[in-house]
Design a protein that fits this description.
binds zinc ion, 3 domains, disordered N terminus, alpha/beta, Aminopeptidase, 26% helix, four-stranded antiparallel beta sheet, 9 helices
């Protein structure tokens, strides 16, 4: 890719429809980038960004740093559908892969969208004067409270825990090619935001709350400059009352087009289920919970590849223990454990023979900041998340 021409304009030419807003303060500071409508049937985040930019403008507020709001999948947004040909949140390069070259005439609509978004992201990175915080705003087909997702690095975790709503760790292990994980791999602080159900005013409000809190927590505004800050915090806290503070994803039920997946009616996000409980049917077969836990993101719409996720609560003790272990550098010692060997071709990756390693290997690797890449039969492949300890 030719990056010889620096982008001196705040926005690369020819893609103005993608920009919800861009406000760059005279004073240097962090950058906050928010994408919304990566799924075309989820316009709530765009509405929230429009309201925040309008309020910043009306009040003449000066940022330290820069805020950019981007629309995600323009053709899918025009149709009000999740995607046109391919899910734009499943086609980002994985660790170590390169972004494909400029899309040709036969490219899928989402390959062109990916390219256009990347152009914006590169320009934003180039002019950033501080740390880049990336937020991806979504909504879901099922009813439920707002929550956040992030790859479990200590700095992502620290940022996510400043928002008074539940945080889910490890969803990126279950999904290949998400934009959030791609931005994480580029070294940015990332936060996935689920505002609530599609097309609900409350979901727009939850995204607004998140954006205002993000502006304060990333240092673009001082807390006293956002008059309603406490009200926004209370709004998120009240909407998620009674839900565990931090959870991890344990299982994803993947679906393929045509397998007739139907979620049993009435499940909400974070609803407690017991092992063996009937959750869905597909092609006449019953799909039951394989362990007790919380149902996450049950699918109640036509398009999508994730039927539901199962998660469980993470204790405060685990969070503190894992932070201490990583800061002590214990992750460097995993190669000494029985059944663990360095991957011959992938730097930073380990192969675990789980018929030898009978000590809850995935849980231990999570504790030390590794993510699961694959687990087939007796071979678990893990790699350490980049930028875990960077400040
Ligand atoms: Zn979405």
């Amino acid at each position: 890719m030719d990056r010889a021409t620096p982008h001196s304009d705040p926005l690369p030419a020819g893609d103005a429809a993608r920009l919800v807003g861009c406000l760059r303060g005279a004073r240097a500071g962090a950058t906050v980038v928010a994408t919304a409508g990566i799924h075309g049937n989820e316009p709530a985040g765009i509405e929230a960004l429009e309201r925040v930019f309008a309020a910043l403008d009306t009040r003449g507020m000066e940022l330290r740093g820069e805020l950019v709001g981007l629309r995600g999948n323009l053709p899918a947004l025009a149709r009000g559908e999740r995607f046109v040909e391919r899910d734009l949140n499943r086609i980002w390069p994985l660790e170590g892969e390169q972004l494909p070259p400029v899309p040709g005439p036969a490219a899928a609509a989402e390959e062109i969208e990916r390219w256009a978004l990347m152009e914006q992201i590169l320009a934003i990175e180039e002019r950033a004067r501080g740390e880049l915080h990336f937020l991806d705003l979504h909504t879901s087909s099922a009813d439920g409270c707002p929550f956040f997702t992030c790859g479990d690095t200590l700095r992502n975790r620290r940022f996510a825990l400043r928002f008074p709503a539940p945080v889910i760790l490890g969803i990126e292990e279950q999904l290949d090619g998400s934009l959030l994980e791609y931005m994480n791999e580029r070294g940015h602080i990332t936060l996935g935001v689920e505002g609530g159900q599609h097309h609900k005013e409350s979901s727009v409000r939850h995204h607004e709350a998140t954006l205002w809190i993000a502006l304060v927590e990333a240092g673009l505004l001082a807390p006293e400059e956002v008059l309603e800050l406490d009200a926004w915090r209370r709004l998120l806290a009240a909407a998620s009352a009674g839900v565990p503070r931090v959870m991890e994803v344990r299982y994803r039920h993947a679906i393929r087009p045509g397998d007739g997946f139907r979620m049993v009616a009435g499940f909400r996000n974070f609803q407690q289920v017991r092992a063996g409980e009937l959750l869905a049917t597909a092609g006449g077969e019953e799909i039951r919970a394989r362990e007790s836990g919380l149902v996450l993101l049950p699918l109640y719409q036509g398009l999508g590849e994730d039927g539901f996720f199962l998660g469980r609560r993470i204790s405060r003790f685990w969070l503190v223990l894992s932070a201490v272990m990583r800061k002590l550098g214990l992750h460097r010692l995993v190669g000494l454990l029985p059944g663990v060997e360095r991957h011959p071709a992938r730097p930073g990756a380990f192969r675990v023979n789980t018929s030898v390693a009978r000590w809850f290997p995935l849980e231990l690797f999570h504790l030390l900041g590794y993510r699961r890449l694959r687990w087939k039969k007796n071979v678990l492949l893990v790699s350490r998340r980049k930028y875990d300890l960077v400040h």
